[in-house]
Design goal:
By secondary structure, the protein is α/β, with parallel strands linked by helices. It is built from 25 helices and 32 strands. The strands form nine sheets. Strands 6-17-18-19-4-5-32 form a seven-stranded mixed beta sheet. Strands 24-28-25-27-26-31 form a six-stranded mixed beta barrel. A five-stranded parallel beta sheet has the order 10-9-8-12-13, sandwiched between helices. The radius of gyration is 25 Å and the shape is globular. Bound molecules: ligand PGD. Ligand PGD is lined by residues 109-112, 117, 119, 139-141, 311, 314, 409-412, 415-416, 436-439, 441, 453, 487, 613-615, 620-623, 687, 711-712, 715, 727, 729-730.
Length: 761
C-alpha cells in the first residue's frame, strides 16, 4: 500500500523513521511539485510542538477575566481530564451568565487539508449544537470580492470557479494584462489539497504559444512577459485611463455593453467628466501616458484576458479595484469568450488557470447556528474592543455582541490580523481564550488554555482540494506527538461533558465518517468510483477532468434567456444596490478613491516607503514557519525584506543587514535583501514570520519590537470599506533604517515557560 497524504501545498508519500517524517516525496502525478513539502520534514517532533494541555498560570489561579495575555507568563501543563473540565465549565458559565452570543467561535483560519478534521468546522459544530455562537463571515483572502461581485454579476461562483485555463489562454488569447502580476509562489497552494500543480508553468506555456503578457505590479516575481512597475495602490487610476482611451478612440465594444451591461453611459461619463485619461493616470501610476494609450489599443486589437489578483482587493477600497477591472473587461466586450474577459485568481492560488473544477466532495454537514450575531472576519479586534458598537456590512447595520469566551482552532490571528499591538489589546478583553494548536504559535501564547492538536500526518482523513485532480486517502503516517489529540476528539470530549456527545459525533467514529462521506459522494456518480476500501488501499483516485465552458458563456450567448442574478439581469457597471447602501467609502459607481496610505499621500513625507505585505514564498501563511523551506528564505534568522538598491544606498543599507522597519503603529526587525525586482520607493516584507515581541527592544512609543519580521505590526486595522469590511493588510507606509548593534535573538520557535501541574501525566 502506498502510504501517503496531502497538504494545501501538495500530495505526497513519506519515509518515516522512528517517530518522524525524514523524507517527503511528491505525488507522481505532480508535474511541478512545491518545495514547501519540505516543511513537513521534522515538523511533528519540532520543539515548538504543543505536547500537553496547558493553562496560563494567572487564569488557573485567579479564574476568568480580562488579562495582559501574551506577556510571557508561564503555562501550567495539566492532564486532559482537567483541561476538558475547565473548558466545559467555562463554556457553561459564559452561556448561562452572558448568553450564547458571548461565545466567539468564528475561529477563522486555513487549518489543514482534509474534509473531516478541518479544525474550525469541528469547533463550529460543537458550539452550534450547544445553542449557537458569534461567527465570522468571508475570508481574509477575498472578502471584498465575495461581497461586491454578487451585486455586479450575481453568481460569484462563475468568476471564482471558471477561471480561464492556461490551455485556453494558449489556444485563444493574444494578450494577458495581469494586474498584480502572475507570481508563481502563490500557485503552490490550493485550499484543501493539490495533487498536480497544473497552473504552474501556465504563463510560460502561453507565451510559447504566442500569447503576450503584461505584468502590472510594483514587485516582479519572475515569469514571462513585460513588467510594468506601477506605483502601489493606483491600479484603478490605470484602469480608468485604459477605459478612457477605449471610449474616446471608438474601441469600446458598444454592442456588448448595450446587450450585456447596465450603466455603461454613466461609467463613461464619470471617467470622461473627471478627465481620467492617460495623461492624468501617468501621475499617480508612475507609468508613461503613451504606453497606457498603446496598451489600450493593443487590448482592443485581439483576444485579451484581464486578470486581477486577490491581493489587489486586500487594500482600502478593494471593492473598487475589482469593480474597475470588471468594467475594463466589459468595455473590451470579451466576457464569456474562451481565453477572454476577466480572470480573478490567476497568480493568487493554484486552482485558477489549472482548468480543474470542484470535486463536489463535501464535509460533514454543518448544523444551523441559532445565533444571528456575526462579524466580517477581519473585524475581530473591533468586536473585542467595542461590544455594543455598530458596524456596516453589505448594506445592513449590525451590533457587536459582548464576547466573553473566544474559542479558536485552525487559525493564527497573531499572524493574519493587522495592527498586532491593537489585536493584543483586544485579546486582553475577554474572560477566557481557548486555542487548539499544534505549535506554540503567537496565538497559542495569547491563550489561557491551549489544547494540543494533531497534525494531518498523525490522523486519517480524505483530501479533496477545492479543485484537485485527485481525491487523496490521507493515511496516518506517524503517532501523535506528546498527548496531541484530533480536534474532533477534543470537541467530542467537550460535547460528552456538556451532555451532547452523541449529537456531536453522530454515532460514528472518524473512520466511519470518512466511509460515510465517501459513499455519499460516490453514489450515482459515473463512472462508478471504486469502493471506499479499494480507494483507501490505492491511496488516491484520479477524478475526471472535463473541459469547461468559459465563465458567463451562457449569459453572453443569450442574456435574455440566462440573465444574471443582478437588478438588471446584466453586468452592473453601476449598482443601485450599492448606491442605496449610502456608504461614503463605497459609492455606487466604480471609482478612483485615493488610498489613505500610498506614495502620493501626505503620510509619505514621514514614511516614504510603500510596504507590500504579501504571501510568503517559503511556506503557506504562517504554517510551519520553522520548516526548512521557510527558514532557507530568512536573512540573519529574520524575514527577508526586499528593497531596491537605490533606496538601500540612500539609507546606507547593504544586503544581509538587519533592518528596523517602522511606522506609527509599530516596528519590526527584518533582514535586508537588495533587489531590482521591486520598484523604487517600494519594499516587500511577506507575512507569516511568527510574531516575536522582544521586551528588551522598544519602539518610540514604548511598544515591543517584533524581532522576527512580522509585517502585521505595521499594517492598519482598517476595513476595505463599509460594504465588505475586508482585510487591507497588503499595503502600508513605512520607513526603514539599518539596525546597528546586537539585535535580540529570535525566540518565536521556543515554547513559553512551562511547568508541570499536579495532575500532569
Ligand atoms: P495560517 O498560517 O494558515 O494563517 O491566516 P491563517 O490564520 O489561515 O494559520 C493556520 C493555523 O492553524 C496555524 O497556526 C496552524 O498551526 C494551525 N493548524 C493547522 N492545522 C490545524 C489543525 O488540524 N488543528 C488545529 N487546531 N490547528 C491547525 C491566513 C490569512 O492571513 C489569509 S487567508 C490571508 S489571504 C491574509 N493575507 C494577508 C496579506 O496579504 N497581508 C497581510 N498583511 N496580512 C494577511 N493576513 C491574512
Amino acid at each position: 500500500m502506498t502510504r501517503g497524504s496531502t497538504s494545501h501545498w501538495g500530495a505526497f508519500t513519506a519515509e518515516v523513521s522512528g517517530d518522524d517524517l525524514v523524507a517527503v516525496l511528491p505525488h507522481p502525478a505532480d508535474p511541478a511539485p512545491s518545495p514547501l513539502l519540505d516543511n513537513l520534514r521534522g515538523a511533528s517532533r519540532h520543539p515548538a510542538r504543543v505536547l500537553r494541555p496547558a493553562v496560563r498560570r494567572g487564569w488557573l489561579e485567579h479564574g476568568p477575566g480580562p488579562a495582559d495575555r501574551g506577556a510571557g507568563e508561564e503555562f501550567v501543563e495539566v492532564g486532559w481530564d482537567t483541561a476538558l473540565r475547565l473548558v466545559a465549565d467555562e463554556i457553561t458559565r459564559v452561556r448561562e451568565r452572558h448568553g450564547h452570543p458571548a461565545v466567539f467561535a468564528g475561529s477563522y483560519g486555513w487549518a489543514s487539508a482534509g474534509v473531516f478534521h478541518r479544525a474550525p468546522d469541528r469547533v463550529h459544530r460543537l458550539h452550534a449544537l450547544l445553542g449557537g455562537f458569534t461567527g465570522s463571515r468571508d475570508s481574509y483572502s477575498t472578502a471584498a470580492s465575495r461581497v461586491v461581485f454578487p451585486h455586479l454579476v450575481g453568481d460569484v461562483g462563475e468568476l471564482f470557479g471558471r477561471a480561464a485555463s492556461w490551455d485556453d489562454v494558449a489556444e485563444h488569447t493574444d494578450l494577458v494584462v495581469a494586474f498584480g502580476g502572475l507570481p508563481d509562489k502563490n500557485l503552490h497552494v490550493i485550499n484543501g489539497g493539490v495533487t498536480g500543480h497544473l497552473a504552474r508553468g501556465g504563463p510560460e506555456r502561453a507565451v510559447a504559444a504566442g500569447t503576450g503578457i503584461v505584468s502590472i505590479s510594483p514587485v516582479h516575481d519572475g515569469g514571462p512577459g513585460t513588467w510594468w512597475p506601477i506605483v502601489p495602490g493606483t491600479d484603478v487610476a490605470l484602469i480608468r485611463a485604459l477605459i478612457h482611451t477605449l471610449f474616446t478612440e471608438g474601441l469600446a465594444d458598444t454592442a456588448f455593453l448595450q446587450r450585456c451591461t447596465d450603466g455603461a453611459d454613466r461609467l463613461r461619463a464619470d471617467i470622461l467628466d473627471r478627465g481620467h485619461d492617460a495623461g492624468w493616470a501617468a501621475g499617480p501610476t508612475g507609468l508613461a501616458a503613451d504606453d497606457i494609450r498603446a496598451l489600450a489599443r493593443r487590448m482592443a486589437a485581439g483576444r485579451t484576458l484581464v486578470t486581477v489578483t486577490w491581493s489587489l482587493q486586500r487594500v482600502p477600497h478593494g471593492e473598487h479595484t475589482m469593480w474597475s477591472a470588471l468594467a475594463l473587461a466589459a468595455v473590451l466586450g470579451q466576457i464569456g469568450l474562451p481565453g477572454g474577459g476577466l480572470g480573478h485568481g490567476h497568480g493568487s492560488m493554484g486552482n485558477a488557470g489549472s482548468g480543474l473544477g470542484p470535486s463536489g466532495f463535501g464535509g460533514v454537514p454543518a448544523p444551523v447556528n441559532p445565533v444571528a450575531d456575526f462579524i466580517p472576519c477581519a473585524r475581530i479586534a473591533d468586536l473585542l474592543l467595542g461590544p455594543g458598537t455598530t458596524f456596516d456590512y453589505d448594506g445592513g447595520r449590525h451590533t457587536y455582541p459582548d464576547v466573553r469566551l473566544v474559542h479558536w482552532a485552525g487559525g493564527n490571528p497573531f499572524h493574519h490580523h493587522q495592527d498586532l499591538h491593537r489585536l493584543r489589546r483586544a485579546f486582553g478583553r475577554p474572560d477566557t481564550v481557548v486555542v487548539h494548536e499544534q505549535f506554540w504559535t503567537p496565538t497559542a501564547r495569547h491563550a489561557d488554555i491551549v489544547l494540543p492538536a494533531t497534525l494531518t500526518t498523525e490522523r486519517e482523513d480524505i483530501g479533496a482540494g477545492r479543485s484537485d485532480s485527485h481525491l487523496v486517502a490521507m493515511h496516518r503516517l506517524q503517532a501523535p506527538a506528546g498527548q496531541a489529540r484530533d480536534d474532533h476528539e477534543i470537541c467530542a470530549g467537550l460535547a460528552g461533558l456538556l451532555g451532547i456527545g452523541e449529537a456531536y459525533t453522530g454515532g460514528r467514529t472518524p473512520r466511519e465518517w470518512l466511509r460515510h462521506l465517501y459513499d455519499g459522494w460516490a453514489t450515482g456518480r459515473e463512472p462508478r468510483p471504486p469502493s471506499f476500501d479499494d480507494f483507501w488501499e490505492a491511496g488516491d483516485l484520479a477524478l475526471p477532468r472535463p473541459r469547461r465552458p468559459p465563465a458567463f458563456a451562457r449569459f453572453r450567448g443569450d442574456p435574455q434567456a440566462h440573465p444574471l442574478r443582478t437588478p438588471s439581469g446584466r453586468i452592473q457597471l453601476v449598482s443601485p444596490t450599492i448606491a442605496a447602501a449610502g456608504l461614503a467609502d463605497c459609492p455606487g459607481v466604480p471609482s478612483w478613491l485615493e488610498p489613505p496610505e500610498w506614495l502620493g499621500a501626505p503620510a509619505a513625507a514621514r514614511f516614504p516607503l510603500h510596504l507590500i505585505a504579501d504571501q510568503p514564498a517559503g511556506r503557506l501563511h504562517s504554517q510551519l514557519d520553522f520548516g526548512p523551506a521557510s527558514v532557507a528564505g530568512k536573512v540573519a534568522g529574520r524575514e527577508a525584506l526586499r528593497i531596491h538598491p537605490d533606496d538601500a544606498a540612500a539609507r546606507g543599507v547593504s544586503d544581509g543587514d538587519v533592518l528596523l522597519v517602522h511606522n506609527d503603529r509599530g516596528a519590526c526587525l527584518a533582514g535586508a535583501r537588495l533587489s531590482g525586482a521591486v520598484r523604487r520607493g517600494v519594499v516587500q516584507l511577506p507575512t507569516g514570520a511568527w510574531f516575536d515581541p522582544a521586551e528588551e527592544l522598544r519602539d518610540d512609543a514604548g511598544r515591543p519590537v517584533c524581532v522576527h519580521g512580522n509585517p502585521n505590526v505595521l499594517t492598519a486595522d482598517r476595513p476595505t470599506s463599509g460594504l465588505a469590511q475586508g482585510c487591507t493588510g497588503q499595503h502600508a507606509l513605512v520607513e526603514v533604517t539599518r539596525f546597528d548593534g546586537e539585535p535580540p535573538p529570535v525566540r518565536a520557535f521556543r515554547p513559553p515557560p512551562l511547568v508541570a501541574g499536579t495532575d500532569h501525566r
